Amino acid sequence: MTTLAHIMQGLGQTSSLPLYQQLQRALREAIDKRILGPDEALPAERQLASDLSVSRITVRKAIDGLVNEGLLVRRPGSGNFINTRIEKNFAKLTSFSEDMRARGRTPRSVWLKRAEGTVTPEEALRLRLSPGAPVYRFHRIRYADEVPMCLEYATIVASCLPNLDAVDISMYDALEQAGNRPVRALQRLSALLLTGEQASLLQAEEGDAGLSVERLGFLRDGRAVEFCRSYFRGDMYDFVAELSTN
Predict the structure, then answer these.
(1) Which domain holds residue 41?
(2) The pTM is what?
(3) What number is the average pLDDT over the span 173-178?
(4) Judgement on whether residues 35 and 76 belong to the same structural domain of the protein
(5) What share of the chain is helix, strand, coil (3-state, %, to 5)?
(6) 24: closest CA among 65, 69, 79?
(7) How far is CA 106 from each of CA 145, 146, 152, 162, 164, rounded to the nearest angstrom?
(8) Whether the predicted pLDDT of 131 surpasses 90
């Protein structure tokens, strides 16, 4: 806790933010800098309040917010832990890289394939393209820090990127720079058992539970830009959505 206390030095003295938001910021920084590692337990709320000279109400409010964000997880009878599982808001169109960075994780990719080509009959149907239309294909393993999280097989309409090498870490960053980032998407989630090849690439076991996500992304003018299939490790990823009666 010494290093965390150092991060929070001057708490309440130089910031106009409420104390609980300052504590949340400090905890996020501690997670980002690996001061608090994956699956590590936080000290008890009473101990945190004492170490940091704040009220338990402040600590509880800060932790509640980080639990809601998915950075922390409560385990009844055990305490609060850094969440190793990733929660993805299924109703929000964000990239894998954005999701990882928002949780203090470092995204990276291992390329399986990066190629130019023409649409398959299925891609032509999904992307509403004529037969023979040019596309770029990006197949890769997506990592959070050093942990493989998913396999991504994306097909992008070639006219929406300047060239094949435009995509580095984030495909959505490249599309945004080209003025062609999707603004809405249709997504389909289904359960599956990982094949031997998928399990090998994801450092899992054949037959382990996985999640398949199929996404079709559209530009503001209604044109389809992206058709992507991703296969996630079921033990590392959760998809959540907020529901209402409206």
Answers:
(1) 1-80
(2) 0.70
(3) 96
(4) yes
(5) 30, 35, 35
(6) 65
(7) 5, 8, 17, 26, 23
(8) yes
